[in-house]
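Why do we care about 3D structure at all? Because function follows from shape, and shape follows, mostly, from sequence. That is the central idea of this module. The next example makes it concrete: a single protein chain, its amino acid sequence, and then its structure expressed as tokens.
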Amino acid sequence: MTAHHDDDDCERMTPSRRAVLGAAGALFAWSFVPKFAYAAAGARDPRFLLVILRGALDGLSAVPPIGDPDYAGLREGIALAMDGPEAALPLDGFFYLHPAMPNLARLYKQGQATIVHAAATGYRERSHFDGQDVLESGQPGAGHTQSGWLNRLIANLPAGEGVSRKGVLGVGVVPPLVVRGDAPVLGWAPPRMARAGSDLTMRLADLYGQRDPGLARALAQAVETEGLAQRRGMAGEQKGGGGPDTADGMRRIAEGAAGLVGADDGPRIAALAFEGWDTHANEGGAKGRLANLLGGLDGAFAAFEQGLAPVWKDTVVMVATEFGRTAAVNGTVGTDHGTGTVAFLVGGGVKGGRVVADWPGLKPEQLYQNRDLKPTTDIRAVAKGVVSELFGLSGPVLAEKVFPETSGLKPVPGLVV
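And the structure:
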């Protein structure tokens, strides 16, 4: 079986185009909003980190519904099992977790992780570019705006004593769409990748008054991973070196972000991206390409938890991707572009230990267009639920300013402690 025509934009992506896509996802972007001190948030001093997985995560492998009788038949060659030497990690008896994610399993058991399954944005086509546009813009369709929902969230934060907005910092060739907009964006485009570390250190020294050069070095090291990926043309072709689609690269990126966001006078909101989740061929089951990526993400969760330890109780990390993958395996033991997938919420501020899912089933007639996991939860409703409880944004502001045209899409309640 060959890839669907809907997946053609993968085939048309030249190395340079892939590099631009990765750069547009710029590894970091921050809102400098020190010390929230308004009544809606009470004594909370929240941190919110948005992690975008570029390429479309296979949610049926990341969080397999082993309890669904139709799961194993659709996943021939890559299905996970609830027992054996490479058993999936139990969650609630129906859903399991990929064995490459023990940190997430631990956080789930500790009540610090929630998984949202059968989730998607309102986008129903299968183009990476348009799907990422919708995910980051927060709009009902692609090409509606040049601003991102995180930027609009920052611009509409409730005013109050101690709140200071210094804008958004984007690191990479261009800032990611999710943070672009009217709130100031401090962009950084390295003229030569070899100068990435020194240029970035100088920028951060300016931002922090040269008070913590260690944080600057940590971030500069992470930016070097992006530079390496771009120099080699496309992240997926790296032979090592710790790019943003490797376990080492994800860990470094997470460490750099946590170091800054965890600082008392640092940013409270961050956005970053991990690459390489487009698993058309040789995806693997308990081990293999996807397992390596999931292990990298799991390591990033550990790095966030460690680096943000002093503020972990008020932290929410949200992980989302542009869409899911087909329910059935293709002829190259991979999965093509799909629809429904999973989102993760991790942190001490998460009301966790549960899988949020209105499960649609995996029988042919239950699949979206007879091929994909049918989405039953809108990722925008999840994001609304998180930011409304973390930052005190009202429903009308979220429906009109942050996620336009979503007055009928209510925030998912009870996601934050």
